[in-house]
Amino acid sequence: MILSSRLSLKFSSLSLAAAALALGLTACGKNKGKVYFGNLQDGAQVESPFTVEMKAENLVVEPAANGVNEGRGHFHILVDVPVSMSMDPIPSDAQRIHYGQGQTEAVLDLPEGEHTLTLQFAKGDHRPFDPQITQTIKVTVTRRNVPPEAAGTDGQGAGVGTGDGAGTAADSLDARTNPNTPVITPAVGGGANNTGGSGMGGGGM
């Protein structure tokens, strides 16, 4: 009777150990993907506007319109804002740019000085992965070059856009009169299933 109890206890301990090991392996295998800026290192010095290459490993970049799919999503760039720990959808604004068409390259125009850039991988509904897949670097803009169209005084400009939509002439005027206004200009990207286009649209979410 004692031997039977000891054997039962031993097998129970082995079962618990096996379950814990399986759980640990599952946790370790979760979110093996990584994202990084392909052409920028932490501490880089750049002149603005500058091109940003968004890279992903063990992940598939696709338009947000494809929905929520395991291991697939699109990029966000956070400019001078911390990464939220919330699992709610990331808002889209001038400092949280969504590249919902599956873009993998963009042009940023930032004022002179030091800036924090975070590359974030998001699901089709603009929610972050859990745990989050990000890379954060600091860059210093040593000079801001004013594009020719922004140097005019007629109030007609290309506009200040974000990854999810184009800006307006009024936005462009504000950028001219306020040198500290960030200007974000998305570029045509090449996601895995990207269908191309103007590069100005987001996920349409």
SSE inventory with pairings:
Layout: H1 2-28, E1 34-37, E2 44-48, E3 50-57, E4 60-61, E5 72-79, E6 96-99, E7 105-109, E8 113-122, E9 134-144, H2 169-177, E10 183-186
Structure description:
The structure is a single chain. Helices cover 18% and strands 30% of the residues. By secondary structure, the protein is of the alpha+beta class. Strands 2, 4, 5, 6, 8 and 9 form a 6-stranded mixed beta sheet that branches. Strands 1-3-7-10 form a 4-stranded antiparallel beta sheet, with no helix packed on it. The longest helix has 27 residues, at 2-28. The chain is globular, with a radius of gyration of 23 Å. The relative contact order is 0.21.
Task: Tally the helices.
Answer: 2
Beta-strand portion reads 25-35%
Question: Kindly state the mean pLDDT as a whole number?
Answer: 73
Q: Oligomer, anyone?
A: single chain
Structural class: alpha+beta
Helical coverage, percent range: 10-25%
Radius of gyration: 23 Å
Largest sheet: 6 strands, mixed
Terminal Cα span: 65 Å
State the domain count: 2
Which outline best applies? Answer: globular
Regions with little confidence, pLDDT below 50 for 5+ residues: 9-14, 16-29, 153-162, 165-205
Could you tell me the number of beta strands? 10
SSE order, as H and E? HEEEEEEEEEHE
